[in-house]
Amino acid sequence: MDKNTPITIFWHRRDLRTEDNAGLYRALKSGNPILPIFIFDKEILDDLEDKDDARVTFIYEAIEALKDDYRKHHSDLEVFYSKPEQVFNKLIKEHKVAAVYTNHDYEPYAAVRDKAVKELLAKHDIEFKTFKDQVIFERDEVTKDDGKPYTVFTPYKNKWMQKLKPFYLKAYPTGKYFKNLAAFKASAIPTLKEMGFGKSDAKFPDKGYEKFIDDYAEKRDYPAIKGTSHIGLHLRFGTVSIRACATDANHAREKTWLNELIWREFYMMVLHHFPKTMDHAFKPDYDNIKWINNEAHFKAWCEGKTGYPMVDAGMRELNATGYMHNRVRMVVASFLSKHLLIDWRWGERYFAAKLLDYEMASNVGGWQWAAGSGTDAAPYFRIFNPEAQMKKFDPKLEYIKKWVPEYADFSKYPQPIVEHAFARDRCLKAFKAALT
Fold first, then answer.
1. What pLDDT digit, counting tens, does each position of 286-318 carry?
2. Which part of the chain is the Photolyase/cryptochrome alpha/beta domain (predicted)?
3. Does the annotation list 369 as a binding residue?
């Protein structure tokens, strides 16, 4: 590339694809050659304790595929392992940068990072433009008639559906403009080892979600059945288009799978308007609960050794695969916060470290729902009975047998660490004391 030719940088983050990419489409139409980049952000990676974190391997493999995709179009992807501000200082010195395009990222760290990058670029008279790409509706696009954010899901969903028009599902035709990509050969991607990570041998789900949509309502609650798409990981990192997912879901004969996509956007909207919910109860009185926070009980929960098969199976599945069935997530979250009276934030942080499909807004929202402290949450007196949940949703014990094989021999399986009736009564008393 000629250093005197103005270029536009497109910064990939949670949009690891070239097709139907809003920000990339806008960049390609900007009138300048496009330099695509990705940054393995040291601010994020250096905080990860597990140096075999499977999510890093997933991103790495997605970046390799993205790089190959650009090369098919006679371009490339420049990949960095650094802090974003350092990367842009380097690029500004090496190129005549006219603008930087990217897609919105809604999490709290991202907001701080983007503010700093925008200020840095402004000092050099470089535009910083961001676009909506990972949701159908964001921030203030679905609100009450008075402009205030919804805090209950059903009316939010109804307004979301009313607002949905073909325009919002239309794909961005990036392929028409690939000729505007800069022709260059990028340097090699920094290796996982250079970044301090090992290659995970985790198995990642494919992108084939379509076959799960029509039967989702019927099969989604049974953890022994492969009735869910596991598409959350791909949505998290943008290796699939939310517009494609929502289009297919909207065309389905029933809308349960679409509802799950709407829940995802509902929680993102809540986190945007109420950022304190990242680590504080949406309902402030719930921060008055006197948690027991027994560390031995928390360890037993983490390891799947609570004496409750449904809880233990879920935790072992999570620890082994980075995934947990959604019905089971509700059971284990309720058990931790209500049976054990352990602060929901402990569980949220554990899930954040383990879940391949971890998404802060949905994870925080889900944990606060289970604890009763969140927006549109289950009432505090709704306490899942793990035994009843097992009998209802795993009646043949197929899920239990897979993850807790010793359950077949009661002499080898631990006794429950807390008795259900006692735990329920204790929970009700603790929550009532905090809320009155």
1. 999 999 999 999 999 999 999 999 999 999 999
2. 6-136
3. no
